[in-house]
User: Fold this.
Amino acid sequence: MNISLHRFSPTKVLIVDDSAFMRSVLKRMLESEENLCVVGTAENGGEALEKIAALNPDVITLDVEMPVMDGLEILSRIMCNFPRPVIMVSSLTQQGAEVTLEALSMGAFDYLPKPFFLNSIDTLKLRAELIAKIKAAAESHYARAGQGEKKFESAPASSFIHHPVKVVALGTSTGGPKALQEILPTLPSDLPTGILIVQHMPPGFTAPFAQRLNKLCQLTVREAEHNEPVIPGVVYIAPAGKQMTLHRRGNSKATICLSDDLEFSLHIPSADKLMESVANTFRASSMGVIMTGMGSDGVIGMTAIRRAGGFTVGQDQASCTVYGMPRSCAQANILDVVVPLRQIPKQILQAIQYKQRA
Assistant:
């Protein structure tokens, strides 16, 4: 297949949802966008699998809550028999969040929160998010097939580190939940520093995600709280809908500040906001890690850490679900090291000069 030609043909989408109303809403949204083509819809798992085989869609939207065969079972069969990007459509509930997180760990590309009510603002927001994710999924699919993008090389971490790192700030988005589940469990419980994470998620998802990670990790993982101190061996997940920054007075412990600050930020929470505050607080003893995700959140923050003398690490293209955030940082020439996902824990341990207890 000629990948360059395929990119200019319409992206074929299959919509799977037991609600006729939602199928109609999603179909209208997608058909209003140039270069997107809804090749079919399905109201249950059996019909979905038949239509995938017959229509060969590039991307699938899949409702989490389905009768007879639930979303996870359908996803499992798709990944086994027809592997391709699947975007889960999930309700904004505790159960919906937990099932969605399980779907991401099983290989779903991303998810889309389904609002309880669709007013004009919700409709516009849902449409923009849906289209952006469909396009990112299709692009990622074609890029992986073609393997055709510039690689950014870097020198070993030891060439750059001059100060022991005392805090790690990490930013990620699409593909982040699965990536974090792969790397955080490999870090030891006696890590002598705290890790602050911005993972782009809707409200209601970050607490279940932190709980899920806490069960998998030797480290303690929790959703961050306002004014709590940053202590070693703890991973803090920024709550959705809040900006998370770091503050310290004199020689006191650094504390977390959660706010409703919306200024200059497309994302709430924002990796840029977090990383800028980390750079201002810890200067050359700060470390920034940018991982898989759409967009360019993190460029400003990683630049601040680099200028402060800190250490910056980016995930490489081959191991990213979406090479957006790391690519933006690589193109800005602000990354000290570019490594595959599995090597990020090693970079963190080297940077903090970790020594295993006897």
